[in-house]
Amino acid sequence: MNPKQHVAERIDRAHASLVRLSHALYENPEPGFEEHKASAWLGDLLSEAGFTVERGVCDLPTAFVASYGSGPLEVAFDAEYDCLPGIGHACGHNVIAATSAGAAIAAAAVADELGLTVKVIGTPAQELGGGKILMLERGAFDGVHAVLMAHPGPLDVAETVTLAMSHFDVEYHGRESHASMFPENGLNALDALTTAQVSIGLLRQQMRSTDRVHGVVRQGGDAPHVIPHHITAEYMVRAATLDELQGLEARVRDCFQAGALASGTSMELRSYHPPYAEQRQDAELLALYKANATAVGRTFPELDPALVRRAAGASDFGNVSHVIPAIQPSLGLDSFPAVPHQADFAAHTVTPVADRAIKEGATALAATAVDAALIPALRDRLTAGSFSAAAAYGTAR
Predict the structure, then answer these.
(1) What are φ and ψ of residue 86, in 5° steps?
(2) What superfamily in CATH does domain 3-162+278-396 come from?
(3) Is the pLDDT of residue 45 over 60?
(4) Cα–chain-centroid distance for residue 260?
């Protein structure tokens, strides 16, 4: 039996437990940095499979690193498991967690034979916290030569795109007054936000097709007959690259400042986390994944590259991919018209189609790790990059 056959056989044996994990996560959604059940269940599953599990790493209670083997080539599978506020696992992180765990368990079956160290890096708060950035800065990825994961979507797509993104809170402070009797005594913080939103709307004419600005109002006033004096909003700005993001964000910040100037209020703007970087996929690893996925029955439709670029989100995985060879293809759930960040998409993550995707995605990821170990030129390229990921990231920033 060759290594890829060992991988497939190990996935077959683990599949039922992986499906149970995915469904348990779906039934128990937890937001970023609060994924206590999810991280514990993943850690327990990997521990039972023979992994050494370090929990609460990087001063993050719901982060973990699980390791198996001691070979010189270190391959990590990234697990995400946080949910979206209000709509649960509508981004399919339950599928990601199960797929990455399964890939690692399968790769561990051939780790000694192939000279591998296999890891699962459990990364909290992808959606709204930048957990991977914190773990990257604090050394969790040090020594890793390649990071692999697959993200569920409507279709299988290898060449996925993510945008650079910044995420911040805007707060306006004005002065309350009776809205009818003495409106002239008030400073209207809601007017400030309205002015900012109009300014952003006008800015859109000068924005690139890959630029995005979107947000929600967290606090919009207390009563209709009281001049709103305290308004908060949460916004995201996205662009194709970190360089483009820097320029766009400066313009957007000016729009928020314009609201304060026009209304006579004061403004505070606070970032939630460092910016997410655009994703850089390793072309050789991605081609191997696509071949391995095709071999187990996945199909990749021919799509217009412009459509793929149009359907771009953002992830802190991008920051990892700037310093370590990485891939994050899309694992199709045949969910159209449901798409990520819709409640209907969450329901698609616990269907027979999704359960099969976990098995096939895990098999393809593990087989890609096998290829990385067995192709001499690729193995040499990856291991030549042995360095401190944290230090490299700090230099890149």
Answers:
(1) 85, -25
(2) Zn peptidases (3.40.630.10)
(3) yes
(4) 33
